[in-house]
Specification:
By secondary structure, this protein is an alpha+beta fold. The protein has a single domain, classed as Nucleoside Triphosphate Pyrophosphohydrolase, CATH 3.90.79.10. The chain is 21% helix and 41% strand. It is built from 3 helices and 9 strands. The strands form 2 sheets. Strands 1, 5, 6, 7 and 8 form a 5-stranded mixed sheet that branches. Strands 2, 3, 4 and 9 form a 4-stranded antiparallel sheet that branches. It starts with 5 loop residues before the first strand and ends with a helix. 31% of the residues are buried. The mean pLDDT is 94.
C-alpha cells in the first residue's frame, strides 16, 4: 500500500501572554501537548480547517489571520517503512471568544504562558516551541 502525505492544519492562538494548547488523546502524539488541529477535509481551506478543529477540540472561537511556515511530520517503523506523513500548516489566529474546554480528541485544553512553551518544560509534540516563536515574530 502506498501512503501519500496528508494535509493538516494547526490553530495557533497567542492571547495575552499565553497560547492555547491541547493534550492529545489520539495518535499521533497521544499524551503530548500541541496545537488544536487535524486533517483538512476535501474542499476545505487550511484556515477553515484550523478554525473548525480549534472549535471542535476546545470550544474556542477565533479568526484566521495568516498561515505560518509548514512542517512535515514523518513517522517510520523500525525497518524504515513509512507509517504516516503529514504536512502541517500552522495558522495564526486571533481570539474571539469562548472558554477552553477539552473536546473531540483532546484530553485537556489550557492557556499556557509563552515562557513555559518556549522552554519546553512540559511534554510537547515536536516544533510546538518553534511554531510559537514564528507566531510571536509575526505579531511583531
Amino acid at each position: 500500500m502506498t501512503l501519500i502525505p496528508r494535509l493538516a492544519a494547526l490553530a495557533v492562538l497567542p492571547h495575552e501572554g499565553r497560547v492555547l494548547l491541547v493534550r492529545r488523546h489520539n495518535p499521533p502524539d497521544p499524551g503530548l501537548w500541541g496545537y488544536p488541529g487535524g486533517k483538512v477535509e476535501a474542499g476545505e481551506t487550511v484556515s477553515a480547517a484550523a478554525l473548525r478543529e480549534l472549535h471542535e477540540e476546545t470550544g474556542i472561537r477565533a479568526a484566521a489571520i495568516t498561515p505560518l511556515p509548514g512542517l512535515d511530520v514523518i513517522l517510520r517503523d523500525a525497518s524504515g517503512g513509512l507509517l504516516w506523513h503529514y504536512h502541517l500548516v500552522p495558522v495564526m489566529c486571533r481570539y474571539l471568544g469562548g472558554e477552553a474546554l477539552a473536546g473531540d480528541d483532546a484530553d485537556e485544553a489550557a492557556w499556557l504562558p509563552y515562557e513555559r512553551v518556549l522552554s519546553r518544560d512540559l511534554p510537547m509534540s515536536a516544533d510546538v516551541d518553534t511554531v510559537l516563536s514564528a507566531a510571536l515574530k509575526h505579531q511583531g
